[in-house]
Amino acid sequence: MTDDVVPRPGPRGPDPDCELCAADRFTHWYSEDDHCWVADCEACSVPMVVWNDHGTEPSEAEIEHMMRSLSSAADARFGPGRWKIDRTMRQVPEHFHAHARDDQWWSQRLTRPLSLYSGVGGERVEHRMGQQH
Predict the structure, then answer these.
(1) How many domains does the chain have?
(2) In Å, what is the CA distance from 88 to each residue of 6, 66, 85?
(3) Three-class SS state of 38
(4) What are phi and psi of 105, to 5 degrees?
(5) 21: in domain
């Protein structure tokens, strides 16, 4: 497989009611391209890849591309081999996305500081209690 991802044809525009289509930039963004974006999940504070198209069935080539993008972010965040991909779409089941979860994600999901948006690919900055934005 090459890095040339050819999206499948079809009218899969954004859904105005979908929070993943909105792609609001609250947390750290690791990367973005014509096919996906990777940012820290607001709910669990781990890297998450989101398909740019609204729907649940990207092509295999798109999935491979997204998993490479997510893997790169997870390696940078947790270290190579210190995380696993979780493709279960719990909170937004109608829009393809996947998480890279480290071993502590479940126990730390409520206490791990959220990151702050500082530009795409920039330094990851965490929000600390009492910190001014």
Answers:
(1) 1
(2) 24, 15, 9
(3) strand
(4) -60, -40
(5) no
